[in-house]
Amino acid sequence: MSLDHREADTSLGRIAIIMPTRNSPLFATGLRVHLRTPRAGDEAAFLRAARASRRLHGHWAKAPSTRGEFAAFVKRYGGDAPAHVGFLVLRNEDGALCGVFNFSEIVRNAFNSAYLGYYAFAPHAGAGLMTEAFALALDVAFGPLALHRVEVNVQPTNRRSLALVARLNLVCEGYSRRYVNIAGRWRDHVRFAMLAEDWDRLRREVSARLKHAARN
Question: Model-level pTM?
């Protein structure tokens, strides 16, 4: 994948964009957090965060928790696979690892869409950082990744995640029974989506809310 370095306007100001290779990750910077693709040197911090977040994740998410799982995660989402792009959420002030956003199954041509999964790390859940990171991820999705549609699937009992998609104004499109096998069980999910034209209309409103929250 060739290097493409540019800047663009986003819901949170300016976004610095480097289209990913293993040594030059795509990244985006917001008011309180920034996104960048994962790399091998993140292993120790990531595994500590995953262990500390097991209770938070429950049966809703499964973060890589071994060296082998983390290596596979970096290989898949670290920039070399055109169908997958992942981001770590890092706090600007100290680089603390706050969460993860992963674009999976990116399909081009007439579909031009992807699935978006995410999870926060303790103790940063509930501080509004993932809301800002979600907005940055959507800016990347409909900017440099040039997607038309992003789909998010949430278990109906995951109140935190349902609140997060509501804050970003994703549209509920339906209910998928026994959709994904997580922790040994097939689990129902609520299906949400954001389209490029939706985000073009909503991003100013979301930006204003995020800037207000950051000031307060």
Answer: 0.86
